[in-house]
């Protein structure tokens, strides 16, 4: 006999607390307005309420799949800049996470929304997506190590923050929510743990730098937060190249 399905997907009984070290807090305070606008973008709000139309979500999904390739490349570059094997492995695992684990969700939604891996591979990235990718790759490859980490951090941290706010607002994700399994990843304790580990690594690297290097890292962080807003915006408007 089939088990009755629960009405909701509940938040974890013992959620992992988000730990924000001093430099991460400094970065977030430096771009508080941009952060709040990104977290409250109409795309995000419509995604949480379930009112987001499928064409916008499909656009987002496909562009995000291409963005994750650059996220994985950034993690791979950062892995070469650490000497400790444990640190190298952490970023290699981060690259794998972006390619394998998160892409599984995209594959599932691809079946539902009508796109294939081939469609993603042949996709033209939007101007905003292209700029965001280039920013992360440049910071990780040519900037200081702390700048590269700061450019990477807003993506998982902002999603984690949105997930925490979402669960405080909803309490639980309705099972019939059209994007339930996608939203569940935002509130997953392993996602919070990943963000905690990344911010802790950033804090450790910060201790080896000071002055202008840290200011450049704060600026790289702010730029990524702005690109996060622009990523939502491009999905909301379904951005194309003007010529």
What features would you highlight for this structure?
243 residues; mainly alpha; Heme Oxygenase, Chain A; 73% helix; globular; disordered N terminus
SSE topology sketch:
Layout: E1 8-10, H1 22-30, H2 32-39, H3 42-49, H4 54-79, H5 85-113, H6 117-121, H7 127-142, H8 145-152, H9 154-170, E2 172-174, H10 180-186, H11 189-206, H12 212-237
Antiparallel strand pairs: 1-2
Care to describe what's here?
By secondary structure, this protein is mainly alpha-helical. It has a single domain, classed as Up-down Bundle (Heme Oxygenase, Chain A), CATH 1.20.910.10. It contains 12 helices and 2 strands; from the N terminus they run E-H-H-H-H-H-H-H-H-H-E-H-H-H. The chain has a two-stranded antiparallel sheet. Helix 4 packs parallel to helix 7, helix 4 packs antiparallel against helix 8 and helix 4 runs antiparallel to helix 12.
The ordered H/E elements are EHHHHHHHHHEHHH
Helix content: over 70%
CATH fold-level topology: Heme Oxygenase, Chain A
Assigned CATH class: Mainly Alpha
CA-based gyration radius? 18 Å
| Head-to-tail CA distance between termini | 58 Å
Q: Rough shape?
A: globular
Low-confidence stretches: 1-12
CATH H-level name... which superfamily?
Heme oxygenase-like
Number of domains: 1
Count the beta strands: 2
The CATH architecture assignment turns out to be Up-down Bundle
Structural class, by secondary structure, is mainly alpha
